[in-house]
Amino acid sequence: MPADPPPQEDSLFEAPPIGEQERMVEAILFASAEPVRVAELNARMPHGCDAAEALAHLARRYEGRGVRLVRVGEAWAFRTAPDLGFLMQKETVEVRKLSRAAIETLAIIAYHQPVTRAEIEEIRGVSLSRGTIDQLLELEWIRFGRRRMTPGRPVTYVVTEGFLDHFGLESARDLPGLKELRASGLLDSRPMPGTEEDDLAEGAQGDMFEDES
Amino acid sequence: MPADPPPQEDSLFEAPPIGEQERMVEAILFASAEPVRVAELNARMPHGCDAAEALAHLARRYEGRGVRLVRVGEAWAFRTAPDLGFLMQKETVEVRKLSRAAIETLAIIAYHQPVTRAEIEEIRGVSLSRGTIDQLLELEWIRFGRRRMTPGRPVTYVVTEGFLDHFGLESARDLPGLKELRASGLLDSRPMPGTEEDDLAEGAQGDMFEDES
Amino acid sequence: MDEDAFDEVAAHDPVSARRAAEALIVDVDGYEGPLDMLLTLARGQKVDLRRISVLQMAEQYLAFIEQAKALRIELAADYLVMAAWLAFLKSRLLLPPDPAQDGPSGEELAAHLAFQLERLEAMRAASARLMARDQRGRDFFVRGLTEDVTRIRKVSYTATLLDLMQAYARIRTRDDFRPYIMDRESVYTMEDALERMRAMIGYAGDWVELSGWLPEGWQLDPVRRRAATAAHFAASLELVKQGVLDIRQGDMFAPIHIRKRTR
């Protein structure tokens, strides 16, 4: 306790009060990716601190809370209270990058919606495997739009609210056009000789949203 | 029938007592490095829980501790107390050095959002180099906002929750000095005398600055 | 750039003025554009930005541009555009207003320039205050040990907006660079050759020259002959692999013979 002289021999300064030491241990254990040993706590805290004592205080403070201070071998860590484990299911989601085919297909749908399968294939220049559209549908990033009023009445695809949410967009219209992509350095190429930059950008933007013109 | 009817319509079971709810919120937030939205907390907790109320209790409990409960936009997270940063050399992440242009651009977006590229250039008096916006997008500190309803319909930029989280802001309204800046009229869009407001927003910089394209 | 130098400019000390101008030239790379340079000049007046003498600032700027021209220093176009605009502003400020001429007055333009400078300075100050805040990963820290309690593994696919835009950019630029359209006229595919040889294999009881197998119309034109030969050779190898054909070549560059394999 602060009134007691610190037991350390060679400290030039008085050790921080035990309440402060407790805060320090709390912060270190919180931020650390692994359990931390008492010796390391002492090494990281200012001279004269007593991590073991601070740990004892801290453990009492977290008794009965949603997280607990637990000993792992020689080290200490915060862990979820065992009775609340059922809340943690969402933390174990395995995140994978979308395949190149899927991201390209998604980009085409976002920029050209509503768009048919045949149009996607034409733009990408390769045929679309079944799994790609299925995957995007399953992710609920795309959905079926109106059927196109052309022979065969093909279905079209459009992006969903979930898509906008995931990519932090307010509407698909807010996606930057080709010209803007180029300006921001995302599109490094020069246009092919003979094509106007404006034609390209406007062409793409024009097709993109039917209600825009 | 519970004495106090819960506000939820179709809950078959009584909601857990508020102390339990507080423990649940504590456990969920401790388990996640990223801020968790109130809506998600409610979705993960048993039916009838009120995460917002539990959060208020929890915030009081952690006042003055080594870790603090902080609000980030619509979400909440535990963060170590800033005065203990000196203990965390091991956890410190080297943040990519931002150029002066990038820092100023970030500030302009934060204080003027939603803001177009042309407006950023008008304020800085210099055209934006290619990588600057790109770098801020990659850090996920800015994102696209709605397109401006002016000729050319330019995209706008706004700051993200990641930005708020990084700079320890509860919301964009808490930007330092925002009120004073607003009161002094320095955040108004004031066109050059003799030019139309539309021209400015569209990206024509009047006589002053070179057009980018 | 030494701010004191500018105080002396204000005091009309010719030697210091020259030094100040030279210092500006040396440091021109350090400026983020003409507005930034004007802000430096304005600060040199050591007064509230709302009370600066725009005229004096314009004169300093124009003097600097003249100096740079005399020293044959290349200046970016926006510095010259600003110089032209300031020259225009100066004339508006100095000449009595012409009632026949409409458009903004010199005072209005000067006030707008002062506003721009004040706003730029305010944004500079704001960005400094922003960067001085406690920052995540530097001053405050996130939970280091995120917990995985249950073994339920749900795969979630993710992609960033940047991925999306780069993918789109990639597709759109690929068209720009499409090298040429292949002339399908003179292409004989291995699949076609394989199909054709399978149908004819029964007739090749004894060694026959592969070149004799080329289809009608593919033997004379060199481009078509090469394509058909390559396709049939590849198809032969495939059939050898499948065990339905034998293949031999007596010598380097000698004719290639094939025959149906007998079991």
TrEMBL record, chains A, B:
Task: List the GO biological process terms.
Answer: cell division; chromosome separation
Signal peptide region: none
Chain residue ranges for the region called Disordered: 184-213
Q: Does this UniProt record's set of keywords contain Magnesium?
A: no
What keywords are annotated for this sequence in UniProt? Cell cycle, Cell division, Chromosome partition, Cytoplasm
Pfam families, alphabetized: SMC_ScpB
Whose protein is this, by species? Rhodovulum bhavnagarense
Cell cycle as a keyword of this entry, yes or no, is yes
According to UniProt, the name of this protein is: Condensin subunit ScpB
Which chain regions cross the lipid bilayer? Answer: none
TrEMBL record, chain C:
List, alphabetically, the InterPro entries matched.
ScpA
- The identity of this protein, by name, is Segregation and condensation protein A
Looking at the record's lineage, which domain of life comes first? Bacteria
Species: Rhodovulum bhavnagarense
